[in-house]
Each structure stands twice: as C-alpha cells, then as structure tokens.
Write a structure and sequence with these properties.
heterodimer, A: mainly alpha, Helix Hairpins, two-stranded antiparallel sheet, about 5% strand, elongated, B: mainly alpha
C-alpha cells in the first residue's frame, strides 16, 4: 500500500491497470467542484485577513492567499475544459484529433505576472511609509484624520 | 490487512492531503500573530497550492508557482519584514474584538455559501460531451480508445507556449509592459531624495 503513495509523481505515463505503479492519477478524477469549494474557503480566509489584519505586510500576504485561490479556480476549470476535439484543417475527411487548449493555465501565468508586480510595488510602498512615518501598523496612518 | 482496494480513491487522497495542508497553512497566515511566521506559513501554503496544481495535471504551473512565489515573493516579503520591523518587533496589535468576529462569520459564511453552490452545480462536462459525440459518429474508429489516456496525462508545455505565442500574444506583451512599468516605478519611488526636497 505504501507503494501507492510513494510512486513517481512526475511520471506522465498512461494509466492502465498494468502500470498502476507508475500512475498517480488512476481512477475517477476528483471533480472540479471540490477544487472550487476549497478555493472559495481560501478566498474567504484571505478576505478576512485583509479586513482584520493591521500590519501592512500581513495584509499583502492575505492578498496573496486570495490570488492563489483564484489561480486554483482557473487551473481547475482548465482541467475541466482544457481539451477540444478538432477536425484536421482544410480536409473534409480524416479523424478528429484532440488538442489541449489550456486557456486557464495561460491566464494563471498572466495572473502570476500581475501578482509579482503587485507584490513589488506594495512592498516598496510599505517601505516608503515606514521610512516617512516610522510605523507599519495600519491604525497609525491618521494623516487624513480618518 | 484487509483486501480493500484503495486505487479508486488515490486522487481523492492526494486532493484531501494537499488541500488540508494548504488550508491549515492559510489559517496560519491569517491568524498567527508573528509576522515572520506568517511569511513561512504563506510559503508552505503556496507549496501546497503548487501540489494541487500538479494534481490538476498542470505540472508546469506547479513548478512555476514554487519557483516564482517561494523563490521570489516570499524572499521579497521576508526582506521587507526585516527592513521595516521597528519597536513592535514584528508583533502587531491585538485585533480580536466584536467586529472581527462578525467580519469572520459574515465573510466565511458568504464564501461557504458560494462554495456550497459551486459544489451543487452539475457542470456540463465539455470533454465528456465531445467524447460522446465522437463516439456516436466514429464508433468504429479506434482512436477513441486513447481518449481516457489523454485525459489522464499532464498538459504539455508546448500547448501553453502555443497559447502564449499565438492567440494571447498581445496580452503577453502587455504583461511584459506592466512588469517593466512596475519595475521602473519602484526604482523611481525608492530613489533617495535630494537635499533640496523638504518633506517626503
């Protein structure tokens, strides 16, 4: 039974009953609903952290948790609808073939880019605020008498 | 040892293990009071999310996630924590009060409700529908037999590269411009002030 857990995670082998030792995703796949549920819980946790945390870097980290939840949703949808049947172009006969259309994963790459830019700018802002005001607690920013 | 066959549940086991790991580490990010621990919890949560990507047949994205987040953003966050911690020693003020309780119950209730709605949805399975149509039309052709094997494989990186270079090329270039603008903005913003400027 231990072999079932210690098999090669990165083996891209076909999953049949013969080479079950090399295959880690044999069996009915986990439905996309489970991933969406988990992502919603993660998103709510991150939103709660953004609302209640007071250290600026903590707020940024909770925003990273929210971004990850959205990325998880995108990848789950990409697995669900990431295959398309296509006809060979300009040919009236011939078999259809299956192509991967991983739009969700491509969007996750863009989202990662935006997340990196956001983290860099946000942390630069935090450092600048710390230099000018001497604190990083969000309650101490009362220049506008809020 | 019983003779119980565990093989149909292996994807569920992977999913629940990594999902619980990610969830517990996100709880640590949100609720732990020491901010360096928050960063470490965030790194572990991101690793768990990368593992979830791998269970979703997106190996490339899992590796990119670990490289980019844990190797880049976490290091950036740790550096800025070390640069900005002052007399409070990284421990923030107590933020538990009635408002935080109501915020927690309302936000988590809303997200739980949306999650339950997601759970109840019967998604139209595009792949299965395509397979069914294919089966109806070409049931005598043997290529259909390879479909479950295709469905269980990881998405090749070539497909992602094709998507990035062909239909989403404009967004790709715009993302690079966004990164460039962010980099230039941060450099200008963090430039030390001249002596003539009075206040920041």
């Amino acid at each position: 039974m231990l072999n079932l857990f210690l098999n090669d995670v990165f083996s891209g082998q076909q999953c049949t009953i013969e080479n079950i030792g090399n295959c880690h995703f044999y069996g009915p796949a986990v439905p996309v609903n489970a991933y969406l549920f988990l992502a919603m819980i993660l998103f709510g946790l991150g939103a709660y952290g953004v609302v209640t945390r007071k250290h600026l870097i903590s707020i940024l980290m909770c925003m990273e948790v929210m971004l990850n939840a959205v990325n998880l949703m995108l990848v789950a949808f990409s697995r669900q609808w990431g295959l398309a049947s296509m006809r060979p172009p300009f040919v009236s006969t011939g078999d259809d073939f299956w192509v991967y259309v991983p739009v969700g994963q491509i969007f996750v790459i863009f989202s990662l880019t935006i997340a990196v830019a956001e983290a860099a700018i946000g942390l630069a802002l935090v450092y600048h605020i710390y230099k000018s005001l001497g604190t990083t607690q969000a309650d101490d920013f009362d220049l506008l008498k809020g | 040892m019983t003779n119980f066959d565990l093989t149909p549940y292996v994807p569920w086991i992977w999913f629940s293990f990594f999902g619980l790991f990610t969830l517990v580490m996100a709880l640590g990010v949100v609720f732990h009071r020491k901010i360096v621990y928050n960063a470490v919890f965030l790194a572990l949560s991101l690793v768990g999310t990368g593992a979830l990507y791998i269970t979703l047949n997106a190996d490339f994205l899992g590796i990119v996630q670990i490289l980019l987040y844990v190797g880049g953003i976490i290091v950036l966050i740790l550096f800025s924590i070390l640069l900005t911690r002052g007399e409070e020693r990284g421990v923030e003020y107590v933020n538990r009060n009635k408002q935080s309780f109501w915020a927690f119950s309302s936000i988590m209730g809303l997200s739980l409700w949306i999650g339950i709605q997601f759970w109840k949805v019967q998604w139209p399975d595009a792949n299965r529908n395509l397979a069914a149509n294919h089966w109806e039309r070409y049931s005598e052709i043997a290529t259909i037999k390879t479909l479950p094997q295709i469905l269980n494989r990881t998405v090749p990186v070539e497909a992602i590269g094709d998507g990035l270079m062909k239909p989403y090329l404009l967004i790709f270039e715009l993302a690079s411009i966004v990164l460039l603008v962010a980099m230039v903005g941060v450099v200008i913003y963090m430039k030390p002030e001249k002596k003539g400027d009075a206040d920041a």
